Amino acid sequence: MIFKGVRDGKPYPEHGLSYRQWSQIPPRQIRLDELVTTTTVLALDRLLSEDSTFYGDLFPHAVRWQGVIYLEDGLHRAVRAALRNRTVLHARVYDMDAESVPQS
C-alpha cells in the first residue's frame, strides 16, 4: 500500500489556518507510508495535468493530530510521487499536537 491509510474526511478539528499561515510553515520530507489521506477520490485531470501546481501552494498540506499525519491537500502530488517510485514527498506539516498556530 502506498499510504498508511485512506479516509473519507478529516478526523481532526478545524484548524482555521489561512493560506498565509500555511506558507510560513517550512516544508519537510514525509514518507508516503506515514500519511493517511483525507479523501478517497482523486481527479484524474489534476493528476495528469502538467501545470497542476500553477495555482496554489507548491507543497501539499498535512496535519499531524494525535500522532498521525493526515494529508489534507495535495493528494495528486503524493500519487504522482508514488508513480515515479518515490517514497518521500516534501509537504508543509501543521502539528496540531503542538498547538502552534503561525501568526499571520
Task: Give an account of the 3D structure.
With 104 residues, this protein is α/β, with parallel strands linked by helices. Helix content is 18%, strand content 28%. The chain has a single domain (5-11, 20-95), classed as Conserved hypothetical protein from pyrococcus furiosus pfu- 392566-001, ParB domain (Alpha-Beta Complex), CATH 3.90.1530.10. It has helices spanning 19-23, 44-48, 75-83; strands at 5-6, 27-31, 35-37, 61-65, 68-73, 88-95. Strands 1-3-5-4-6-2 form a 6-stranded mixed sheet. A hairpin with a 2-residue loop joins strand 4 (61-65) and strand 5. The longest helix has 9 residues, at 75-83. The mean pLDDT is 88. It comes from Mycolicibacterium fluoranthenivorans.
Would you spell out the secondary-structure blueprint of this structure?
Blueprint: E1 5-6, H1 19-23, E2 27-31, E3 35-37, H2 44-48, E4 61-65, E5 68-73, H3 75-83, E6 88-95
Parallel strand pairs: 1-3, 3-5, 4-6
Antiparallel strand pairs: 2-6, 4-5
Question: How are helices and strands ordered from N to C?
Answer: EHEEHEEHE
Question: For this structure, what is the CATH class?
Answer: Alpha Beta
Multimerization state:
single chain
Q: Ranges with pLDDT <50 over ≥5 residues?
A: none
Tally of strands: 6
Mean pLDDT: 88
Approximate helicity band: 10-25%
Shape: globular
The CATH superfamily title: Conserved hypothetical protein from pyrococcus furiosus pfu- 392566-001, ParB domain
Q: Which radius of gyration do the C-alpha atoms yield?
A: 13 Å
- Structure classification: alpha/beta
Report on the biggest sheet: 6 strands, mixed
Please give the count of helices: 3
Going across the biggest sheet, name each strand in turn.
1-3-5-4-6-2
Give the DSSP E fraction (strand runs of 2 or more residues): 25-35%
InterPro entries: VapB-like_prob
Protein name: Transcription regulator of the Arc/MetJ class
Organism: Mycolicibacterium fluoranthenivorans
Pfam families: VapB
